[in-house]
Amino acid sequence: MEGKNFLRCLFFICSVVLIMLFTAFNFPTPLSDKSELLECATNSAWCTAKNRILRHPNRAPLGHDHTADVPHHPLDPLTIQEMNKVQKVIKSFFGKSVYSVHSLVLEDPEKQVVLKWQKGDPLPPRKASVIARAGGKNYLLTVDLESGEVVEHDTSHISGFPLVTLEDMQNVIFAPLSNAHFNRTILERGVDLNDVACLPFSPGWFGKAEDGRRLVKLECFTMKDTANFYMRPIEGIIVITDLDTSEVVEIIDKGKHIPIPKAAGTDYRLSAENGPVIKLPNPISMEQPNGPNFVVEDEHLVKWANWEFHLRPDPRAGVMISRARVRDPETGELRNVMYQGFSSELFVPYMDPERYFKTYMDAGEYGFGLQALSLDPLNDCPRNAKFMDAIFAASDGTPYVRSNMVCIFERYAGDAAWRHTESPITGKLILEARPKVSLVVRMVASLANYDYIVDWEFHADGLIHVKVSLTGIVIVKGTSYVNMNQVKENEDIYGTLLGDNIIGVVHDHYINFYLDMDIDGLDNSFVNVHLQREYTHGTSPRKSYMKVNKTVAKTEKEAQIKLKLYDPSEFHVINPNKKTKVGNPVGYKVVPAGTAASLLDPEDPPQKRSAFTNNQIWVTRYNKSEQWSGGLFAYQSHGEDTIQVWSDRDRPIENKDIVLWYTLGFHHVPCQEDFPIMPTVSSGFDLKPVNFFERNPVLRIAPYVENELPVCKAAASA
């Protein structure tokens, strides 16, 4: 009888935790009622069976039915029909072996094929790239969608594992509750098992002893009396578990003397606040009653003002911008700027030696796109936004729809594209100003506690602004301290005391971007435009001035750039084969911001795995297989398949097809304003034309005139 009661209790706990994990890790699920929830809790395969197209729960209106979608462009993502075909091929390939699909995406055609293709031409052969696991082995497969032919690529030389699937995490969260030692120590701490939630975190890699098994480290919290369970850690318990078998390998059980932080004041929901609600009496909204100025043709080709680009969601990168071209106002020609751009990898190391493994590579370990939210209209995106769905594959290859994963909208905040006033010299008033309107492509990834908002913003003057905003919940650890006067002199608590028994741990965020710049063609060069002090040597009343020295990088090592405040440079990607009328090579420059640099030792295992943070800027020779700066298999990788390794090959890059990489960085020393949820912090970088146009490309933009603007009424929004 006691055994039955225990199982009943365990079953209830699993169901509750499952609901919580669906929210925390964005599990794909069609669940609509309790019976389905319980079925999924006991049989994870049921969730993705019968070729059902799963819809992620979201508050936004669902996108349209995608079952009849067909590709129109060589870079269009795989359709549901294509994924179903690939799923059958994979099943046949593995036969009776148990397998899991970790990535199922379009295998891009060769770049030259895409560049030659024009609308109306037949599509090049469609192929799928599949990363799977079976029998303890990683598989990288190419599936020909027409013939069904499968080509297996050798990956035996690459360490690590593919990103964990949502089903992997879904299965492993119950492992601690099946362990008697774990349940006993939870009860000894006075915590009800019904209130426990354990979340799976990647373990990093710290030596060969960790090889051979896909491991995960679960940390546990109490959900009692708050939605913000992250602020109620059960300190000192780490459950090391095998992802493939759900076997508990080891339980680290320390910190029983550390109290669990109280729930009071931790809930971030408006309904939990007791004070007055802060609300503007007159809400602000950008309205476009006549519709937007952009169009999305054939589901993925975005056209706005003088820009045209291909947009597709991706389970690892989040979104991919491809074939970005801008129309020259003088010639009317669509000119190539960037062949492809996306978030390649993230690195989030926590600076607590006691929790040394907290060094997350979120894109390669979890999937930036897999963790993307269905966006919340009016709050994630303005009312004038349009939405795009994503179609991803579950671990058995079944396609499911992530509704409203991406939003596209025009932004106008009253800024000027350019302006000038003239009066005293000319004797008459000249007042010229132009509105700055831009187009934003946005996605939000919710990686457990943290939310990342990524914007690609296109401006009519040819500039591309890439912005990353951080918000969400700071990772904390429990402590016996309730006031800083209890902390011993020179004691390092590895963070900031945010409240009673809560320390917000110091950490960094790095986001590396892959930017395949093709300025007016494939063959480009990287130029270091070095700014240095020069002396006049008595030829002027001035003693010194700033001189520009330009150096073209010959090889990859010459383009490994660490930014220096007092030794500044501009960094240009130019086409040396095309010049303006006055003889300058056309180009773009990267304008850095968010320049935090890693302070970890270069030989520290996390730093070797995330070696893209060794420099802020890299330039490599284009190689179709080199897209993920932390390696193809980032999970428990050793660091032998990174951008550092590729760049150290020192290939020629002058007047070649090259890729620019930029690493955006944030240092985060938590403060009390980050409790219980942190206000958004943002930074970004620009890709800016430099001698690309013959003159100011927005010179002919018309100013706003009062009688041409729409008049919006509040009633119209009802």
UniProtKB/TrEMBL annotation:
Ranges of residues in domain Copper amine oxidase N2-terminal: 73-153
Active-site residues from the entry: 362 (proton acceptor), 450 (schiff-base intermediate with substrate)
Domain of life: Eukaryota
Entry annotated with the keyword Oxidoreductase: yes
GO molecular function terms listed in the Swiss-Prot or TrEMBL record: copper ion binding; primary methylamine oxidase activity; quinone binding
Keywords recorded for this protein, A-Z: Copper, Disulfide bond, Membrane, Metal-binding, Oxidoreductase, TPQ, Transmembrane, Transmembrane helix
Limits of the Copper amine oxidase catalytic domain: 285-699
Membrane-spanning segments: 7-27
Protein name in the entry: Amine oxidase
Source organism: Sesamum radiatum (Black benniseed)
